[in-house]
TrEMBL record:
One of its GO terms (molecular function) is hydrolase activity. It comes from Massilia mucilaginosa. This is HAD-IB family hydrolase. It comes from the Bacteria. Pfam families: HAD. Keywords: Hydrolase, Magnesium, Metal-binding. Signal peptide: none annotated. The keyword Metal-binding applies.
Amino acid sequence: MKNLALFDLDHTLLPIDSDHEWGEFLVRTGAVEPLEFKRRNDEFFEQYKAGTIDPVEYLEFALGTLARFPRKELDAMHARFMAEVIEPAILPSARALLRRHQDAGDLVAIITATNRFVTAPIARALGVEHLIAAIPEEDEHGNLTGKLLGVPTQGAGKVTHTHAWLAQIGTPLDAFGRSHFYSDSHNDLPLLSVVTHPVATNPNAVLATHATRLGWPLLHLFND
């Protein structure tokens, strides 16, 4: 039977948070008003780490920011972001883990709360075909409207989106011999709890405690 390997992105495959770093990049390059934007970006990041963030409120903030720019300008900004921030953060250990599952013939996907505009080029750079991420609405010209399509890909939303994606490809979760999910955060406990092989990867303190209690493996991808 074919196996499934799901990966969170930020602090799991990357040693950084791509969503927060994108905000920092916008501040650093002068694309947004620095003081208030940075304050809100940092505030949402702390809420995420604490598990108290309202994902819809955050995505309205993030996608509303993207909607200020024409798509061509956004894509040029993102190419610079990839070169300056993301590509230096893609480490051999992450590539090796992905390759191990790909070489085994597993179905591999990244599932992240970060929106698809930010993460689609990252998934391509990591060599991962399938990406489940928050979906920004686009107008007929490809410009982002600032609105979110569907429910956020966070917490229980990751379970919902995983089942929906698997239904689209005609293979339900229980049809896989093994289903792996690698994540660093207790925010992902809903999805970690429904796969057969959860792996606490670079786990925060809450997830490490939970994983240890349940006997889940702990993987320190950037230290080993």
